[in-house]
TrEMBL record:
CDD domains: TM_PBP2 (cd06261). It is a multi-pass membrane protein. It comes from Paenibacillus tyrfis. The chain crosses the membrane at residues 12-34, 78-99, 111-129, 141-161, 182-204, 258-277. Residues 74-277 form the ABC transmembrane type-1 domain. Belongs to the binding-protein-dependent transport system permease family. GO terms for biological process: transmembrane transport. This is ABC transporter permease. GO terms for cellular component: plasma membrane.
Amino acid sequence: MGLRLRRISVFDAVNMLLLLVLCLAVVIPFWYMLTVSLSPVSESLGGRFYLIPEQLNFEAYRYLFSTDRFVRSIGNTVYITVVGTAVNLLVSITLAYALSKKTLPGRKLMLLMMLFTMVFSGGLIPKYLLIKSIGLLDSYWALILPGATNAFTVLVMKTFFQSLPESLDEAARIDGAGEPRILLSVVIPLSMPIIATFSLFFMVGHWNEFFGAIIYLSDNAKWPIQVLLRLMVIAGEANIASENNLDFELASKVGDNVKMAAIIVAMIPIVVVYPFLQKHFAKGAMLGSIKE
């Protein structure tokens, strides 16, 4: 049988062309940043647009990782992201699981209080005064505890937990399992799609932490990577090496290549983590969990 070619309609052709343009509009800026970061400073300062470096040069990355300031900011961001995401999941899952039980005393009042926070907020100044009064200023916990959870996340998780068959709970209780065991052994394994989704949201939020850091952290040794990126890219301070840890040979090669390299390094972790969580986004986690 000969190969039958499918006729492409004008509508399909226009759609494919638009998708190609959108794809290039997304990919080219990132490719340009990667190209500039791998170029020598003399080429990156020329101000011209190019997508292939004339010669590969890793001096920008070597300079970044030779400075304590940049490495420390990466460590700060990793700590905030890991601890913050763990706190977010712990508080959100346990609270949502408790609220999914209709027998919980005061359940309606707690739901009303959570809904109230979706409409009204205390504002920035009261929040700052509260954090100051409990001694969290200049502490990583000032970036983690105030946002330990939010009403939207809890309500979505609560609805998902309520959709799980009650027969699973009943079977676990017959086997002698208590609420903590049911949550850990039954509910969480079946809720991995929604947990993975919110885990990614929490991770991206903590990794991109900027506004809270510039308000609550006065010690620049505790700054996350996003604050340092702002200093480098917007304020134009690409030379971030401290005086007691300065490679003068490398510092003389600081330019746009270092700024682009810093952006690439700050972007890679989330890009790497996403594929591992993406598989849990698919629907159908309940298929086969109950047999009639």
